[in-house]
Structure to design on (191 residues):
């Protein structure tokens, strides 16, 4: 929720960021833009507690809709002044709401793509672990996946394999995984 005030000091006027819930509910119920000028003479809203308390004179509210998804609403009001909203104001607010929806859609698509990119190595690693049994090996980096792919290929061959690396990098664990996935798995493994 983003609330902005203009011509009001939100620190000294605590109600500056308060909204008319009845207007927002009506907009979301009808899923249509709503513009009400001279709100005190509107039977449907004139007795609403928030409208009376806030001294609302005009209000506009536009739903944020994309297909079947309703994200919320954009709401603008005028308090204690006779300056009504025009049709141009409503058109602007509708255009603004469309831009907000586009921004939400793009953000959702980016988030979805990021999640897929994050899941891809994990899914690939899980698939590889089904084919190449290596329960002792943990991780999901691309380098590890490439090492395990190579280990899966060589484990079925009769070739001698030399594994090089720093102390503590898991050379013996990798060698054991290659041995356990090879035709020699029933023979002893000597570290």
């Amino acid at each position: 929720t983003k609330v902005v005030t203009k011509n009001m000091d939100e620190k000294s006027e605590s109600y500056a960021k308060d909204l008319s819930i009845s207007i927002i509910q009506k907009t979301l119920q009808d899923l249509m833009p709503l513009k009400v000028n001279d709100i005190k003479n509107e039977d449907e809203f004139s007795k609403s507690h928030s409208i009376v308390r806030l001294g609302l004179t005009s209000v506009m509210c536009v739903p944020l809709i994309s297909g079947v998804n309703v994200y919320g609403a954009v709401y603008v009001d005028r308090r204690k002044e006779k300056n009504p909203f025009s049709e141009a104001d409503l058109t602007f607010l509708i255009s603004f709401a469309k831009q907000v929806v586009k921004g939400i859609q793009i953000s959702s698509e980016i988030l979805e793509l990021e999640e897929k990119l994050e899941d891809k190595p994990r899914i690939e690693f899980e698939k590889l672990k089904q084919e190449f049994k290596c329960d002792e090996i943990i991780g999901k980096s691309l380098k590890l996946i490439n090492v395990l792919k190579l280990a899966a290929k060589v484990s079925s061959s009769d070739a001698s394999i030399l594994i090089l690396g720093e102390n503590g990098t898991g050379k013996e664990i990798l060698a054991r995984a290659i041995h356990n996935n090879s035709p020699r798995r029933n023979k002893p493994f000597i570290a």
